[in-house]
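Fold it.
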Amino acid sequence: MSTVAVPSREELVRRVSEIAPVLRANAEWSVEHRRLHEETLKALSDTGVFRMRIPKRYGGYESDARTMVDVADAIAQVDGSAAWLVACHWIATWGLGLFPDEVQSDVFEDPDAQVCTTIGPGTATAVPVEGGVVVNGEWPCISGALSSRWQQVAAILLDPNGEPYPVMGPVQLSELQTRDDWHTTGLRSSGSIATIAKDLFIPQERLLPAPAVVGSQSVSKLNADVTIYRAPFMAVGSAATVGVATGIAKAIRDAFFERLPGRQATYTLYPSLAEAPVTHLRVAEAVMKVDEAEFHAQRLAAQVDAKCASGEAWELTERGRARGDEGSAVRLANEAADILAANSGGSSAYTKVPIQRFVNDLRTVSLHAMMIPDVNAEIYGEVLCGQEPNTYYI
Protein backbone atom coordinates (compact mmCIF):
# COMPACT_ATOMS: atom_id res chain seq x y z
CA MET A 1 0.00 0.00 0.00
CA SER A 2 1.32 3.42 -0.99
CA THR A 3 1.96 5.96 1.75
CA VAL A 4 1.63 8.98 -0.56
CA ALA A 5 -0.13 11.86 1.20
CA VAL A 6 -3.48 12.62 -0.41
CA PRO A 7 -3.95 16.36 -1.02
CA SER A 8 -7.28 17.97 -0.23
CA ARG A 9 -9.57 19.52 -2.81
CA GLU A 10 -8.44 22.97 -1.74
CA GLU A 11 -4.79 21.99 -2.01
CA LEU A 12 -5.18 20.66 -5.54
CA VAL A 13 -7.02 23.79 -6.65
CA ARG A 14 -4.28 25.89 -5.06
CA ARG A 15 -1.61 23.94 -6.94
CA VAL A 16 -3.44 24.54 -10.20
CA SER A 17 -3.63 28.28 -9.47
CA GLU A 18 0.13 28.31 -8.90
CA ILE A 19 0.89 26.84 -12.33
CA ALA A 20 -1.60 29.11 -14.11
CA PRO A 21 1.20 31.42 -15.34
CA VAL A 22 2.93 28.45 -17.00
CA LEU A 23 -0.25 27.30 -18.70
CA ARG A 24 -1.11 30.82 -19.79
CA ALA A 25 2.38 31.50 -21.17
CA ASN A 26 2.27 28.35 -23.32
CA ALA A 27 -1.35 28.55 -24.45
CA GLU A 28 -0.75 30.17 -27.83
CA TRP A 29 2.19 27.85 -28.59
CA SER A 30 -0.03 24.90 -27.79
CA VAL A 31 -2.79 26.15 -30.08
CA GLU A 32 -0.33 26.74 -32.92
CA HIS A 33 1.28 23.31 -32.57
CA ARG A 34 -2.00 21.50 -31.84
CA ARG A 35 -0.67 19.84 -28.70
CA LEU A 36 0.08 20.86 -25.13
CA HIS A 37 3.54 22.28 -24.53
CA GLU A 38 5.86 19.99 -22.59
CA GLU A 39 6.16 22.62 -19.87
CA THR A 40 2.38 22.60 -19.49
CA LEU A 41 2.27 18.82 -19.23
CA LYS A 42 5.08 18.75 -16.68
CA ALA A 43 3.44 21.48 -14.61
CA LEU A 44 0.14 19.57 -14.60
CA SER A 45 1.91 16.35 -13.65
CA ASP A 46 3.75 18.08 -10.82
CA THR A 47 0.45 19.18 -9.28
CA GLY A 48 -0.66 15.55 -9.04
CA VAL A 49 -3.85 15.99 -11.08
CA PHE A 50 -3.08 12.88 -13.13
CA ARG A 51 -3.20 10.83 -9.91
CA MET A 52 -6.64 11.93 -8.83
CA ARG A 53 -8.61 8.89 -10.02
CA ILE A 54 -5.97 6.23 -9.45
CA PRO A 55 -6.31 3.84 -6.47
CA LYS A 56 -4.33 4.88 -3.41
CA ARG A 57 -2.33 1.65 -3.34
CA TYR A 58 -0.58 2.79 -6.54
CA GLY A 59 0.11 6.30 -5.28
CA GLY A 60 -3.21 7.75 -6.42
CA TYR A 61 -5.59 10.01 -4.53
CA GLU A 62 -9.06 8.48 -5.17
CA SER A 63 -10.39 12.04 -5.36
CA ASP A 64 -14.15 12.54 -5.21
CA ALA A 65 -16.43 14.03 -7.85
CA ARG A 66 -16.51 17.51 -6.38
CA THR A 67 -12.73 17.64 -6.51
CA MET A 68 -12.82 16.68 -10.18
CA VAL A 69 -15.33 19.44 -10.92
CA ASP A 70 -13.36 22.10 -9.04
CA VAL A 71 -9.96 21.11 -10.43
CA ALA A 72 -11.19 20.83 -14.03
CA ASP A 73 -12.89 24.20 -13.62
CA ALA A 74 -9.68 25.78 -12.32
CA ILE A 75 -7.57 24.40 -15.17
CA ALA A 76 -10.17 25.35 -17.81
CA GLN A 77 -10.17 28.95 -16.64
CA VAL A 78 -6.65 29.11 -18.06
CA ASP A 79 -6.52 26.44 -20.79
CA GLY A 80 -9.59 24.52 -21.93
CA SER A 81 -7.60 21.92 -23.84
CA ALA A 82 -5.46 21.13 -20.81
CA ALA A 83 -8.57 20.68 -18.68
CA TRP A 84 -10.16 18.43 -21.29
CA LEU A 85 -7.07 16.22 -21.50
CA VAL A 86 -6.91 15.88 -17.70
CA ALA A 87 -10.63 15.05 -17.51
CA CYS A 88 -10.27 12.34 -20.16
CA HIS A 89 -7.39 10.90 -18.16
CA TRP A 90 -9.61 10.69 -15.07
CA ILE A 91 -12.22 8.73 -17.00
CA ALA A 92 -9.59 6.35 -18.37
CA THR A 93 -7.88 5.66 -15.04
CA TRP A 94 -11.16 5.25 -13.16
CA GLY A 95 -12.40 2.82 -15.81
CA LEU A 96 -9.24 0.75 -15.52
CA GLY A 97 -9.97 0.40 -11.81
CA LEU A 98 -12.77 -1.97 -12.84
CA PHE A 99 -10.27 -4.38 -14.44
CA PRO A 100 -8.45 -7.28 -12.77
CA ASP A 101 -5.93 -6.12 -10.18
CA GLU A 102 -3.04 -7.62 -12.15
CA VAL A 103 -3.95 -5.46 -15.15
CA GLN A 104 -4.13 -2.36 -12.96
CA SER A 105 -0.67 -3.13 -11.56
CA ASP A 106 0.77 -3.07 -15.08
CA VAL A 107 -0.88 0.23 -16.03
CA PHE A 108 -0.40 2.08 -12.75
CA GLU A 109 3.20 1.02 -12.16
CA ASP A 110 3.98 4.69 -12.75
CA PRO A 111 1.07 6.70 -11.26
CA ASP A 112 2.14 9.78 -13.20
CA ALA A 113 2.00 8.05 -16.58
CA GLN A 114 -0.90 9.41 -18.58
CA VAL A 115 -3.71 7.24 -19.92
CA CYS A 116 -6.14 8.04 -22.71
CA THR A 117 -9.31 6.22 -23.68
CA THR A 118 -12.24 5.63 -25.95
CA ILE A 119 -15.50 3.93 -25.05
CA GLY A 120 -16.49 3.43 -28.69
CA PRO A 121 -14.96 0.75 -30.94
CA GLY A 122 -14.39 3.05 -33.91
CA THR A 123 -13.59 0.78 -36.85
CA ALA A 124 -11.69 -1.73 -34.70
CA THR A 125 -12.44 -5.45 -34.75
CA ALA A 126 -10.98 -8.18 -32.56
CA VAL A 127 -10.45 -11.71 -33.86
CA PRO A 128 -10.01 -14.48 -31.26
CA VAL A 129 -6.66 -16.29 -31.28
CA GLU A 130 -4.99 -18.52 -28.75
CA GLY A 131 -4.51 -16.58 -25.52
CA GLY A 132 -6.32 -13.43 -26.60
CA VAL A 133 -7.41 -11.44 -29.62
CA VAL A 134 -5.83 -9.68 -32.60
CA VAL A 135 -7.14 -6.18 -33.16
CA ASN A 136 -7.20 -4.16 -36.37
CA GLY A 137 -8.79 -0.76 -36.87
CA GLU A 138 -8.60 2.80 -35.67
CA TRP A 139 -10.05 5.22 -33.17
CA PRO A 140 -10.57 8.93 -33.91
CA CYS A 141 -10.24 11.89 -31.55
CA ILE A 142 -8.11 10.27 -28.82
CA SER A 143 -7.43 13.17 -26.46
CA GLY A 144 -4.06 12.76 -24.79
CA ALA A 145 -2.68 10.24 -27.27
CA LEU A 146 0.42 12.35 -27.88
CA SER A 147 1.45 12.30 -24.23
CA SER A 148 -0.03 9.07 -22.85
CA ARG A 149 1.72 5.78 -22.19
CA TRP A 150 -1.46 3.68 -22.28
CA GLN A 151 -4.74 3.76 -24.18
CA GLN A 152 -7.92 2.02 -23.16
CA VAL A 153 -9.20 0.69 -26.49
CA ALA A 154 -12.49 -0.83 -27.61
CA ALA A 155 -13.19 -3.23 -30.47
CA ILE A 156 -15.95 -5.47 -31.78
CA LEU A 157 -15.11 -9.07 -30.95
CA LEU A 158 -15.95 -11.29 -33.92
CA ASP A 159 -16.96 -14.33 -31.91
CA PRO A 160 -17.18 -17.35 -34.27
CA ASN A 161 -19.54 -19.08 -31.82
CA GLY A 162 -21.96 -16.24 -31.24
CA GLU A 163 -22.99 -12.67 -31.94
CA PRO A 164 -20.28 -9.99 -32.21
CA TYR A 165 -19.98 -7.82 -29.11
CA PRO A 166 -17.69 -4.96 -27.97
CA VAL A 167 -14.73 -5.52 -25.67
CA MET A 168 -12.31 -3.11 -23.98
CA GLY A 169 -8.76 -3.33 -22.69
CA PRO A 170 -5.59 -1.29 -22.16
CA VAL A 171 -2.66 -1.31 -24.61
CA GLN A 172 0.57 0.65 -24.67
CA LEU A 173 0.68 3.59 -27.06
CA SER A 174 4.01 2.28 -28.35
CA GLU A 175 2.05 -0.65 -29.85
CA LEU A 176 -0.20 1.67 -31.86
CA GLN A 177 0.29 3.85 -34.88
CA THR A 178 -1.03 7.39 -35.02
CA ARG A 179 -2.43 9.74 -37.63
CA ASP A 180 -2.12 13.46 -37.04
CA ASP A 181 -5.54 14.59 -38.26
CA TRP A 182 -6.53 16.93 -35.42
CA HIS A 183 -7.16 20.09 -37.46
CA THR A 184 -10.02 21.80 -35.66
CA THR A 185 -11.42 25.17 -34.65
CA GLY A 186 -11.49 24.36 -30.93
CA LEU A 187 -9.63 22.28 -28.35
CA ARG A 188 -6.76 22.49 -30.79
CA SER A 189 -4.18 21.99 -28.04
CA SER A 190 -5.64 18.68 -26.92
CA GLY A 191 -3.80 16.82 -29.68
CA SER A 192 -6.77 14.49 -30.11
CA ILE A 193 -5.28 12.56 -32.99
CA ALA A 194 -6.35 9.16 -34.32
CA THR A 195 -4.70 5.94 -33.15
CA ILE A 196 -4.44 2.80 -35.26
CA ALA A 197 -4.02 -0.89 -34.47
CA LYS A 198 -2.48 -3.24 -37.02
CA ASP A 199 -2.42 -6.93 -36.07
CA LEU A 200 -2.23 -5.94 -32.39
CA PHE A 201 -2.35 -8.86 -29.96
CA ILE A 202 -4.14 -8.23 -26.64
CA PRO A 203 -3.98 -10.97 -23.99
CA GLN A 204 -7.33 -12.33 -22.85
CA GLU A 205 -6.70 -11.28 -19.25
CA ARG A 206 -6.65 -7.63 -20.33
CA LEU A 207 -10.11 -7.74 -21.88
CA LEU A 208 -13.55 -7.08 -20.46
CA PRO A 209 -16.91 -6.85 -22.27
CA ALA A 210 -17.54 -3.15 -22.97
CA PRO A 211 -21.10 -3.26 -21.58
CA ALA A 212 -19.63 -4.53 -18.30
CA VAL A 213 -17.23 -1.58 -18.15
CA VAL A 214 -19.89 0.97 -19.10
CA GLY A 215 -22.16 -0.71 -16.56
CA SER A 216 -19.45 -0.36 -13.87
CA GLN A 217 -19.36 -4.14 -13.29
CA SER A 218 -16.01 -4.36 -11.56
CA VAL A 219 -13.92 -7.53 -11.40
CA SER A 220 -11.31 -5.90 -9.17
CA LYS A 221 -11.05 -7.51 -5.75
CA LEU A 222 -8.91 -4.77 -4.22
CA ASN A 223 -11.27 -1.99 -5.32
CA ALA A 224 -14.39 -3.76 -4.05
CA ASP A 225 -14.70 -1.43 -1.06
CA VAL A 226 -13.23 1.71 -2.61
CA THR A 227 -15.81 4.49 -2.45
CA ILE A 228 -15.26 6.06 -5.88
CA TYR A 229 -16.23 2.80 -7.62
CA ARG A 230 -19.83 2.94 -6.38
CA ALA A 231 -21.02 5.07 -9.27
CA PRO A 232 -22.18 4.40 -12.85
CA PHE A 233 -19.58 4.94 -15.55
CA MET A 234 -21.58 7.69 -17.25
CA ALA A 235 -22.16 9.61 -14.03
CA VAL A 236 -18.41 9.47 -13.38
CA GLY A 237 -17.70 10.65 -16.92
CA SER A 238 -20.17 13.51 -16.55
CA ALA A 239 -18.63 14.63 -13.25
CA ALA A 240 -15.14 14.43 -14.75
CA THR A 241 -15.92 16.63 -17.75
CA VAL A 242 -18.59 19.11 -16.64
CA GLY A 243 -16.04 21.34 -14.89
CA VAL A 244 -14.33 21.90 -18.23
CA ALA A 245 -17.46 23.65 -19.51
CA THR A 246 -17.99 25.79 -16.40
CA GLY A 247 -14.32 26.73 -16.22
CA ILE A 248 -14.19 27.86 -19.86
CA ALA A 249 -17.38 29.88 -19.35
CA LYS A 250 -15.73 31.65 -16.40
CA ALA A 251 -12.66 32.32 -18.54
CA ILE A 252 -14.86 33.98 -21.16
CA ARG A 253 -16.61 35.99 -18.46
CA ASP A 254 -13.31 37.16 -16.96
CA ALA A 255 -11.80 37.94 -20.36
CA PHE A 256 -14.82 40.09 -21.20
CA PHE A 257 -14.58 42.14 -18.00
CA GLU A 258 -10.81 42.47 -18.34
CA ARG A 259 -11.28 44.17 -21.70
CA LEU A 260 -14.32 46.24 -20.71
CA PRO A 261 -12.58 49.27 -19.12
CA GLY A 262 -11.78 51.82 -21.78
CA ARG A 263 -13.81 50.12 -24.53
CA GLN A 264 -15.91 52.53 -26.54
CA ALA A 265 -19.53 52.03 -27.57
CA THR A 266 -18.64 52.58 -31.22
CA TYR A 267 -21.09 54.62 -33.33
CA THR A 268 -23.10 55.64 -30.24
CA LEU A 269 -23.07 58.67 -27.96
CA TYR A 270 -22.28 56.65 -24.84
CA PRO A 271 -18.88 57.64 -23.38
CA SER A 272 -17.98 53.96 -22.88
CA LEU A 273 -19.42 50.50 -23.38
CA ALA A 274 -19.57 50.04 -19.61
CA GLU A 275 -22.12 52.89 -19.44
CA ALA A 276 -24.48 51.48 -22.07
CA PRO A 277 -27.71 49.96 -20.65
CA VAL A 278 -27.60 47.15 -23.21
CA THR A 279 -24.24 46.11 -21.75
CA HIS A 280 -25.73 46.00 -18.26
CA LEU A 281 -28.57 43.77 -19.42
CA ARG A 282 -26.42 41.41 -21.40
CA VAL A 283 -23.63 40.93 -18.85
CA ALA A 284 -26.08 40.37 -16.01
CA GLU A 285 -27.82 37.69 -18.07
CA ALA A 286 -24.53 36.05 -19.02
CA VAL A 287 -23.09 36.02 -15.50
CA MET A 288 -26.29 34.52 -14.12
CA LYS A 289 -26.08 31.76 -16.73
CA VAL A 290 -22.52 30.98 -15.66
CA ASP A 291 -23.76 30.75 -12.06
CA GLU A 292 -26.60 28.46 -13.13
CA ALA A 293 -24.19 26.24 -15.06
CA GLU A 294 -22.08 25.88 -11.94
CA PHE A 295 -25.18 24.94 -9.94
CA HIS A 296 -25.80 21.96 -12.25
CA ALA A 297 -22.12 20.96 -12.15
CA GLN A 298 -22.04 21.03 -8.37
CA ARG A 299 -25.38 19.23 -8.04
CA LEU A 300 -24.06 16.50 -10.31
CA ALA A 301 -20.91 16.15 -8.20
CA ALA A 302 -22.88 16.18 -4.96
CA GLN A 303 -25.14 13.39 -6.17
CA VAL A 304 -22.18 11.22 -7.24
CA ASP A 305 -20.38 11.76 -3.94
CA ALA A 306 -23.47 11.17 -1.82
CA LYS A 307 -24.37 7.94 -3.58
CA CYS A 308 -20.78 6.71 -3.40
CA ALA A 309 -20.63 7.47 0.32
CA SER A 310 -23.91 5.70 1.09
CA GLY A 311 -23.37 2.74 -1.20
CA GLU A 312 -27.03 2.85 -2.19
CA ALA A 313 -28.08 1.61 -5.61
CA TRP A 314 -28.59 4.24 -8.29
CA GLU A 315 -32.14 4.76 -9.50
CA LEU A 316 -32.64 5.19 -13.23
CA THR A 317 -33.91 8.73 -12.66
CA GLU A 318 -30.69 9.56 -10.80
CA ARG A 319 -28.60 8.23 -13.68
CA GLY A 320 -30.69 10.26 -16.10
CA ARG A 321 -30.38 13.41 -14.04
CA ALA A 322 -26.59 13.08 -14.00
CA ARG A 323 -26.64 13.35 -17.78
CA GLY A 324 -29.30 16.04 -17.59
CA ASP A 325 -27.20 18.13 -15.22
CA GLU A 326 -24.18 17.95 -17.50
CA GLY A 327 -26.27 18.85 -20.53
CA SER A 328 -27.79 21.82 -18.72
CA ALA A 329 -24.39 23.04 -17.54
CA VAL A 330 -23.03 22.87 -21.08
CA ARG A 331 -26.08 24.60 -22.55
CA LEU A 332 -25.95 27.45 -20.03
CA ALA A 333 -22.20 27.86 -20.43
CA ASN A 334 -22.66 28.20 -24.19
CA GLU A 335 -25.51 30.66 -23.83
CA ALA A 336 -23.34 32.81 -21.59
CA ALA A 337 -20.44 32.55 -24.03
CA ASP A 338 -22.62 33.57 -26.96
CA ILE A 339 -23.83 36.69 -25.13
CA LEU A 340 -20.36 37.78 -24.06
CA ALA A 341 -18.76 36.99 -27.42
CA ALA A 342 -21.46 38.91 -29.27
CA ASN A 343 -20.78 41.95 -27.08
CA SER A 344 -16.98 41.78 -27.30
CA GLY A 345 -16.65 43.89 -30.42
CA GLY A 346 -14.81 43.36 -33.67
CA SER A 347 -11.40 43.50 -32.01
CA SER A 348 -12.14 40.21 -30.23
CA ALA A 349 -11.83 38.40 -33.56
CA TYR A 350 -8.05 38.73 -33.42
CA THR A 351 -6.33 35.49 -32.43
CA LYS A 352 -4.24 37.39 -29.88
CA VAL A 353 -7.42 38.04 -27.87
CA PRO A 354 -7.96 35.00 -25.61
CA ILE A 355 -11.76 35.20 -25.61
CA GLN A 356 -12.01 33.73 -29.11
CA ARG A 357 -9.88 30.72 -28.11
CA PHE A 358 -12.07 30.03 -25.12
CA VAL A 359 -15.27 30.36 -27.14
CA ASN A 360 -14.00 27.94 -29.78
CA ASP A 361 -12.89 25.49 -27.10
CA LEU A 362 -16.29 25.56 -25.40
CA ARG A 363 -18.16 25.04 -28.65
CA THR A 364 -15.98 22.06 -29.47
CA VAL A 365 -16.47 20.56 -26.00
CA SER A 366 -20.21 20.90 -26.56
CA LEU A 367 -20.04 18.77 -29.70
CA HIS A 368 -18.88 15.69 -27.80
CA ALA A 369 -21.54 12.99 -27.99
CA MET A 370 -21.76 12.70 -24.20
CA MET A 371 -22.14 16.44 -23.65
CA ILE A 372 -24.66 17.56 -26.29
CA PRO A 373 -27.36 19.37 -24.30
CA ASP A 374 -30.35 18.20 -26.36
CA VAL A 375 -29.24 14.55 -26.29
CA ASN A 376 -28.72 14.62 -22.52
CA ALA A 377 -32.05 16.38 -21.97
CA GLU A 378 -33.84 13.83 -24.14
CA ILE A 379 -32.38 10.93 -22.16
CA TYR A 380 -33.41 12.50 -18.86
CA GLY A 381 -36.86 13.30 -20.25
CA GLU A 382 -37.37 9.71 -21.39
CA VAL A 383 -36.65 8.46 -17.90
CA LEU A 384 -38.91 11.06 -16.30
CA CYS A 385 -41.75 9.96 -18.58
CA GLY A 386 -41.33 6.33 -17.59
CA GLN A 387 -39.79 5.31 -20.89
CA GLU A 388 -36.71 3.17 -21.42
CA PRO A 389 -33.75 5.34 -22.48
CA ASN A 390 -32.59 4.72 -26.04
CA THR A 391 -29.01 4.19 -24.89
CA TYR A 392 -27.06 2.06 -22.45
CA TYR A 393 -24.73 5.02 -21.83
CA ILE A 394 -26.61 6.04 -18.71
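The first strand starts at residue 115 and ends at 117.
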